[in-house]
Amino acid sequence: MSLKRRNRINANFSMASMTDIIFLLLIFFMITSTVVMPNAIPLSLPQASRQTAIKPPVRVTINRQLQYYIGTGREKDQRVMPAEIIPRLKSISAGDPKMTVALYADEAIPYSEVVRVIDILQENKLKMVLVTRTK
């Protein structure tokens, strides 16, 4: 009386599920990497006890060499002169009265330069957030 097994165990390994997981991870990292806004202008932001939760879509940056840049998350920051700030912001906002501008100013620049940009934004009734780093 010989007993034989009817079900044999297959020793093959299927990579289909592994490739699905790798594909999903690839899609996840591609999507999240486009959300990150790299700041290519080297700045040393002033310290504050807390940061704002608002992330405005438009930013004005002043670096140590007193060069002004305006940029959005969709494009690279472009260098502008102080007199060109408002025309450039108006072309970006396209008439959006609720647009908020983030001001990135290096901590080593004179305070008068920051006040100059704040005055320009307030004269044109634009909301502003001063960006700092946490302690």
Explain this structure to me?
The protein starts with 15 loop residues before the first helix and ends with a strand. The protein has a domain at 47-134: Nucleotidyltransferase, domain 5 (2-Layer Sandwich), CATH 3.30.420. The chain has helices at 16-35, 85-93, 111-123; strands at residues 47-48, 58-62, 68-72, 78-80, 100-105, 127-130, 133-134. By secondary structure, the protein is an alpha/beta fold. The relative contact order is 0.19. The model has no long low-confidence stretch (mean pLDDT 79). The chain is built from three helices and seven strands. The longest helix has 20 residues, at 16-35. Helix content is 31%, strand content 20%. The strands form two sheets. Strands 4-3-2-5-6 form a five-stranded mixed β-sheet, with helices on one face. The protein has a two-stranded parallel ribbon with strand order 1-7. A hairpin with a 5-residue loop joins strand 3 (68-72) and strand 4 (78-80).
Largest sheet: 5 strands, mixed
**How many extended strands?**
7
Beta strand %: 15-25%
- The helical percent reads 25-40%
CATH class category label of the domain at 47-134: Alpha Beta
Mean pLDDT: 79
CATH architecture classification name of the domain at 47-134: 2-Layer Sandwich
What is the H-and-E element order?
A: HEEEEHEHEE
Q: How far apart lie the N and C ends?
A: 82 Å
Which fold name corresponds to the CATH topology of the domain at 47-134? Nucleotidyltransferase, domain 5
Q: Tell me the number of helical segments per DSSP (H or I, 4 or more residues long).
A: 3
